[in-house]
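tl;dr need the bound structure. longer version: we got a ligand (zinc ion) that a collaborator sent over and nobodys looked at where it sits. i said id run it. heres the input, straight from their email, havent touched it
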Amino acid sequence: MKTLITNGTIVNADATTTGDVLVDGESIALIGTDLGASVSADTTIDAGGKWVIPGAIDVHTHMELPFGGTFAKDTFESGTRAAAFGGTTTIIDFAVQPRGQSLRDGLDAWHAKADGNATIDYGFHMIISDVRDDVLAEMDTLVDEGVTTFKLFTAYPGVFFSDDGAIFRAMQQTARNGGLIMMHAENGLAIDVVAGQTFDEGHTDPYYHGVSRSPVLEGEATNRVIRLAQTAGAAVYIVHLSAREALDEVRQAREEGLPAYAETCPQYLFLTLDDMKNGFEGAKFICSPPLRPADHAPELWKGLVHDDLQVVSTDHCPFDFHGQKEMGRGDFRKVPNGLPGVENRVDLMHDGGVVGGHLTPNRWVEIISTAPARLFGLPRKGAVAVGVDADLVVYDPNRRHTISAQTHHMDVDYSCYEGREVTGGSDVVLSRGKVIVDGDEWLGAKGDGRFLKRERSEYLR
Ligand code: URP
Ligand code: ZN
Ligand code: ZN
């Protein structure tokens, strides 16, 4: 099966060109001008006036995550379908080691959730809840199996929290095996003290989730894990960085030449602590780290421009407002933490980043696709180039549309961006050469997504 995409503006991280892209089977066979004159294709897609970009890669999702006494609502089927409608053709989801069990137990459970259900390609990171000698040894095996990245937490005491010694040992292991430690960096022990005191003072609304989690305690934990990694001789990647204080630590480390990397998420660029007001409605915005006061986002944009932040992921972790977020009525500590967003990232970053004047189209592609591919060991993804997977998006940079729970494809009963009008949208989405989204039409299929055995990070070689 051959598909010819004609007359598009091909936007890669490093260059913009005009021309045609020939897809043969699952990969890109040829890029050039006027290819229609020399090759015959089964299907032609006219991309005149549109951009052809590499399918976006979301390196931080939580499909079906058991968390906060419930489960993140999107399955691998619904979540990857929603991702595809939003121009994302690869996700990397977090498998979880249940405390007291092995990494293998957690990984097998995640394979079972995704296999036969995912509609786009997917990889896994491994959340380590319980660092033990046998677990450290298992990390080497997982790296060889393409699960090359491990998330640990200085937050969530009693759930995912690891102490500094455990984190340090895991970092030493990746320094040896070429893996990468991803850190949720907030001082969870101190935060829980503040949250308890805040609750005891009678502040029970969701807004106080945000107030209890000081940005200083994100900065402190970010500094600590960077310095642990430095001492262990390991690289570190800070997930869902939200605060100026944390960014300062990453920037400082990078200026020192340390292999410190970080992502932020759309919620920290487009939403603020004030969104958590309005009584219990604020529960819709409860995530950790929390939304920050409005003066943090401009710093994060600067961080993206200057490459102190390399990636924007979503941390997609959707809970219905009704029935799930409502578990925390009367106690903000009981609201499940997490926001939906896998469908909205590409358009929000185009609208706020490119149209908003912060990012060139090339830098936008780099942040949403190319850097994630390189950092997370996916050499066949992240570029419009001959020989790589034909994960492609025909993107209309001028299409205006309104984000709403009425029209989104995520299996969740609200949107954090309800009513926000954005410019830019994915018209046609191809996953390994197959058109899976054509306008509003879904042409993909459950089970078509493949597990991606990832290589070690290109940034660490
Ligand atoms: O609130 C969040 N971020 N929920 C998902 C779990 C995590 O910490 O990434
Ligand atoms: Zn986290
Ligand atoms: Zn997360």
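gonna send this back to them w/ a short note. The chain has a mean pLDDT of 98.
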